[in-house]
Amino acid sequence: AGLSMLTGEGSPFPASPEWAGATGRPCLLGPPAGGTRLGAEGPGAGTKNQRVCHVAVQLEMGSLWEEFNRLGTEMIVTKAGRRMFPTFQVKLSGLDPLADYVLLMDFIPLDDKRYRYAFHSSSWLVAGRADPVAPGRVHFHPDSPAKGAQWMRQIVSFDKLKLTNNLLDDNGHIILNSMHRYQPRFHVVFVDPRRDSERFAHENFKSFSFPETQFMAVTAYQNHRITQLKIASNPFAKGFRDCEPEA
């Protein structure tokens, strides 16, 4: 409720009802922004609302993400949905402590290819054109909306987010194609109290992406070194050793 942002030219999200707000209007987050490790915004940041233009985002567990990235991060997708590891966690600064913000994530394909893993060379090879793009979805942090002060008080963790390869998923999980590469994106949206707030939708958000969080979606780990690192660094690693039924 209270979100009256609209889709528009350059919006990364389709006008689909599954992420429409209570008003039935989908949410606009605008064109993708280039990001750095500290989540710097790309060109055009100067046109942003003062409530978001100073927002900065730092990726938590950056060294662990980089360790996975050097090996080629893989994330499991299942029919039932699987949590990400490492978990996407960020530390926010520069928000207006008294303003309301919604935090959310989406995942965009890195290219138009599908891949296969060559075990003899321990490398990913292009296997053809990408499958049709899975239904575009966003994951709202469950504490949204909340005051800037609350978001800045502690590390924000997207530990409820799950990835699925079920195109008919009705649990709100992020739908991805297996053997395709993705870039997670993080968005901070100022909840504009003005009655005509949709006119300013393009000014009221800031997007961040961290290249070290890119990953290949898989139904089973392909690189055994990824499996080893997940088990070594994940306190809940027993879940990675147990095979989940795909039914």
Write a compact overview of the structure shown.
By secondary structure, the chain is an alpha+beta fold. It has helices at about 50-55, 60-70, 150-155, 225-235, 240; strands at about 55-60, 75, 80-85, 90-95, 100-110, 115-120, 125-130, 140, 145, 155, 160-165, 175, 180-190, 205-210, 215-220.
Written account of the structure:
- The chain has 247 residues and is an alpha+beta fold.
- It has one domain (50-240): Transcription factor, T-box (Immunoglobulin-like, Sandwich), CATH 2.60.40.
- Helix content is 14%, strand content 27%.
- It is built from five helices and 15 strands.
- The strands form four sheets. Strands 2, 5, 8, 9, 13, 14 and 15 form a seven-stranded mixed β-sheet that branches.
- A hairpin with a 4-residue loop joins strand 6 and strand 7.
- The two termini are 35 Å apart.
- Residues 1-46 have low confidence and may be disordered.
Write a concise keyword list for the protein shown above.
14% helix, disordered N terminus, Immunoglobulin-like, 3-stranded antiparallel β-sheet, 247 residues, globular, 7-stranded mixed β-sheet, alpha+beta, single chain
